[in-house]
Amino acid sequence: MSDVPSTSTLTGQPTSIARRPSSHANIIAVTSGKGGVGKTFISANLAAALTRQGLRVLVLDADLGLANLDVVLNLYPKVTLHDVFTGRAALEDAIVAAPGGFHVLLAGSGMVEYSRLTPEVRNQLIHTIDTLAPRYDVVLLDTGAGISDVVLFSLSLASEILVVATPEPTSLTDAYAAMKVLVTQQKRHSMRLVINQAARAGDGRAITGQLQQVLNRFVSTESGMPMRLIHMGDIPADQAVRDAVMRRQLLMQSTPACPAALAIAQLATRVKSTLPKREPA
Ligand SMILES: Nc1ncnc2c1ncn2[C@@H]1O[C@H](COP(=O)(O)OP(=O)(O)OP(=O)(O)O)[C@@H](O)[C@H]1O
Ligand SMILES: [Mg+2]
After folding, report:
1. Chain-centre distance for alpha carbon 170
2. Ligand 1 pocket test, candidate residues 45, 154, 242, most atoms within 8 A of CB
3. Are 37 and 165 in contact (CB under 8 A)?
4. Is the pTM of this model over 0.85?
5. CATH no. for residue 165?
6. What pLDDT was estimated at residue 91?
7. I need a surface site. Which of 1, 31, 103, 111 has the fewest CB within 10 A?
């Protein structure tokens, strides 16, 4: 695997954003480019749906400086990744059981020290994932918005990238930009796409086709082949999502039969069916 040097966005210093060797675990990073499109909502509810389907799931809040997975799950963590990273707590003590039956590692909020990738953050993230991933069938990384070096490094730790986009042109433009960076920097050959807040059935398939055409034209992978975009499903815009977030409940628990929850259950089935069989660690 190549070690791709990059430049820290804040310091201008070179920071290595390296794709790591394939791990024994299925690590799926949820990303989007644009903020506020539903990454955290999808990570939490997809984790609940995968757990229902019999998988052991861990969600790591990789939005290290501006975390809010705890808010969505109505958790008040005593220990966060920040405590672990600064040596104040053991990693085991930061693992929290979430309402949906899965485990979470929560991060802190309002922490400017996580706005750039330092060697400490880098090593701590690697250590955390290497230690915990073998215990789970799936690890979901709920990343922050944008393409900062912290976000890109979290993405480099994943075996699969799940891009979340809404049908809005701004979201699609940012999703495309993030994909382009991931192909060039991390030599990704394929990525998965879920369209959130879809207005009509069929939106996602059409959008995936359009994005694939642009990728074919302007972005080529190391082998010269186009990057393959795999449509994983659509989640409709649904008032029940907003209601669940306001009540700080999992949609899969509060209204499991609403259209968005049914779509997430389908997404989980699709994700589960596409998981490669990994050798035991
Ligand atoms: N399918 C949907 N239907 C209706 N509203 C939705 C849907 N998905 C997300 N939302 C709304 O969008 C809000 C933002 O979602 P969320 O916090 O998951 O986005 P995010 O991508 O994680 O944001 P950030 O980039 O800040 O981390 C939710 O609180 C919810 O109100
Ligand atoms: Mg989020």
Report:
1. 19
2. 242
3. yes
4. yes
5. 3.40.50.300
6. 97
7. 1
Q: pLDDT value at position 21?
A: 47
Cβ(207)–Cβ(245) under 8 Å? no
Residue 161 domain flag: yes
Helix H or strand E segment including 143? strand 138-143
Beta partners for residue 103, in sequence order = 58, 97
Q: Which residues of the chain have pLDDT under 50?
A: 1-16, 21
For 48-83, the three-class secondary structure string (H helix, E strand, C coil) is: HHHHHCCCCEEEEEECCCECCHHHHHCCCCCCCHHH
Q: Please tell me the predicted confidence (pLDDT) of residue 15.
A: 46
Tell me whether residue 13 is in a domain. Answer: no
In this prediction, residue 2 carries a pLDDT of 36
- Reference 74, options 56, 47, 102, 99; nearest CA is 99
Query: What number does the ligand 1 atom closest to the CA of 196 have?
Result: 1
Q: Please check whether residue 8 lies inside any domain of the structure.
A: no
192 belongs to a structural domain: yes
Q: How far apart (Å, rounded) are the C-alpha atoms in residues 63 and 143?
A: 5
- Domain boundaries, position 222: 23-273
C-alpha of residue 39 to centroid of ligand 1, in Å: 7
Query: Which pLDDT belongs to residue 10?
Result: 38
Angle 184-173-218 from CA coordinates, rounded to 5°: 45
Q: What is the DSSP letter of 141?
A: E
How many domains are there within the chain?
A: 1
